[in-house]
Design goal:
255 residues, Lyase 2-enoyl-coa Hydratase, Chain  A, domain 2, 6-stranded mixed β-sheet, 10 helices, 10 strands, 41% helix, globular, Enoyl-CoA_hydra_C, lyase, lipid metabolism, ClpP/crotonase-like_dom_sf, lyase activity
């Protein structure tokens, strides 16, 4: 992993992945992109990490997107499908991934936020898809119209203008807006709360939301029941009620 520009650290059961190029507004150059793929794979295989948090160094930018200087030097035309991690498409994990947006999230930074399971944003965070202003495309934004109202998605795509964290929260792109000084503490608390829950139940819940979105109700219920059937049959499904009856914390085995 590109340790110089992408940091991976444990905070209890939570893996914090930090893009560390604050002098370049955490732009996603080749080294950062490789580091993000490596960090995500490491998290997926890490038995000590139940939740991953993705953030940027400093308090200015989560990420300003692709490194335009590098892009111009290389004459990049159509980016390959694996140009950037897109959680749920070419990278990711069955375990939850949270974005802690500590500043602007533009272009590729917006892409990363869009594909996270939960998004916590500092009050000063800003979100934009400015590709139209630099003559580029945003095919990666195809899921956006299913995450926020289509007209709001079109406004972002057609104008390239940023929106505030409060506006992003109102649209449903952001889970919670937090004072900047409290962002990491609040995200860590949420991640630890998730990590304390039964891992099979958590992963099934994530899978259900991702796979049933847009399905007709009958199909959605059938798919949800298929996803949760192994959870009901697991040892943890017996451990939870037993721990409650015995007035003790559950000891999850993930089986």
């Amino acid at each position: 992993m590109s340790a110089q520009v992408v940091r991976y650290e444990h905070r209890g059961p939570v893996a914090w992945v930090t893009i560390d190029r604050p002098e370049a507004r955490n732009a996603l150059d080749r080294a950062v992109r490789a580091g993000l793929f490596a960090a995500t794979a490491r998290f997926d295989a890490d038995p000590g990490a139940a939740v991953m948090v993705l953030t940027g160094a400093g308090d200015v930018a989560f990420s300003a997107g692709a490194d335009l200087k590098e892009m111009a030097a290389e004459g990049l035309t159509v980016p390959p499908p694996d140009f950037l991690p897109q959680f749920g498409r070419n990278a990711g994990s069955a375990k939850p991934i949270i974005a802690a947006v500590n500043g602007l999230a533009y272009a590729g930074g917006f892409l990363l936020v869009q594909s996270c399971d939960l998004v916590f944003a500092a009050e000063h965070a800003r979100f934009a898809v400015p590709e139209a202003a630099v003559g580029r495309g945003a095919p990666w934004a195809a899921p956006l119209a299913s995450l926020i109202p289509p007209k709001a998605a079109l406004q972002l795509l057609l104008t390239g203008e940023p929106i505030t964290a409060a506006r992003a929260h109102a649209l449903g792109l952001v889970s919670e807006v937090v004072e900047a000084a409290q962002l990491q503490e609040r995200v860590q608390a949420c991640a630890e709360r998730i990590a304390a829950n039964a891992p099979l139940s958590v992963r099934a819940a994530k899978q259900m939301v991702l796979t049933t979105r847009g399905l007709p109700p009958d199909q959605a219920f059938a798919e949800a029941e298929r996803i949760f059937a192994p959870v009901y049959r697991s040892a943890d499904a017996q451990e939870g009620p037993r721990a409650f009856a015995e007035h003790r914390p559950p000891r999850w085995s993930g089986r």
